[in-house]
Amino acid sequence: MAELKNTELRSEERALVLFKGLVESYLSDGLPVGSKTLADRAGLGLSSATVRNIMGELEHLGLLKSPHTSAGRVPTDAGLRLFVDSLLTVKPLTTSELQQVQGELMVNSPVDELMRSATTMLAEISQLAGLVAMPRAQRKTLAHIEFIGLSQERIMAVLVTADGTVSNRMIYAEQSYSRDDLRTAGQFLAEHCVGKTLEEMRHWLAGHLQELRDQVINSMQAVTDLANQLVSEDADQEHLLLRGESNLLAETTRPGDMERLRELFAAFDERQSMLALLDSCVDARGVQVFIGSGSEFSFYEDYSLVAAPYEVAGEVLGVLGVVGPTRMAYDRVVSLVDVTARLVGAAMNR
């Protein structure tokens, strides 16, 4: 890199060049960066003393910090936030990586298998943890519904959504219903609710509940009894797939890392906290990056999540991403997550 004269850049610009170089160096090798090393790498013709003063100002702003064991500096979570939002240069996937992603995802396979492939591939390419929130039935469009009686009280609801996913749900009826009652109830709901999501179906039922209850016809009683259970919040548990958790063990190099990793694994097991974080990506477009303490979730301290929603026909069905230490290769992971989300959406659109 050709050296630039000191006067060619304003002090703010020099600070950004130095800051960007420091963060890139830290993300590359994980080591604190000293003023002499940074002065040599930046190519700005600045003395070590000048660089040291600028680094001190950046530390005062909360963008850098000095580990106790080193004279060098590393970025804080706020510093990483600034870097990702304003200074990150995203690297495209290599030819071999792109071929791997396309080979795994551009095939005709069931949705569940597609999601497992995406999760595994995210973990393999990033060498971190890959995760995929499976499509929520509440957000899927209903294509077919029927009820099958298994016993006097146990009834199986068969749901088929527009993307071809078939799911069976066990319902415990408040009373016994005949085969004709169940067939009529299924036909009634199909007539009024096919083309709606389960969430829209819930709202429709709420608006017609009293009208249906006033009817003494047994099949209409079946509609209110079965449909209310079918669209209940508890019946719609979102699934979270995880792969590559063991990759995170390789990153536990500092005191306290294992304890923080245990907290993260506990969040993986508990699921709901992780899903709550992923849900915050649903209404966003494009890749979202949550960094350490800035994620507002305590279990993410020292870890980052790079996530993106995937869509079918313009409708967000779920979120996928990569979890790793805050010192991750954001330039590669952002590209990986973005491409994967687009290809998953394309595969589900076929």
Number of domains: 3
Number of helices: 13
CATH homologous superfamily identity of the largest domain:
GAF domain
CATH architecture of the largest domain: 2-Layer Sandwich
At the first level of CATH, what is the class of the largest domain? Alpha Beta
Let me know the average pLDDT: 81
Molecular structure report:
There is one protein chain. With 350 residues, the protein is α+β, with helices and mostly antiparallel strands. The chain has 3 domains: 6-87, Orthogonal Bundle (Arc Repressor Mutant, subunit A), CATH 1.10.10; 95-134 and 238-349, GAF domain (Beta-Lactamase); 138-235, Enolase-like, domain 1 (2-Layer Sandwich), CATH 3.30.390.60. The chain has 13 helices and 10 strands. The strands form 3 sheets. Strands 7-3-10-9-8 form a 5-stranded antiparallel beta sheet, sandwiched between helices. A 3-stranded antiparallel beta sheet has the order 4-5-6.
Quick description:
With 350 residues, the protein is an alpha+beta fold. Helix content is 48%, strand content 17%. It has a five-stranded antiparallel sheet, with helices on both faces.
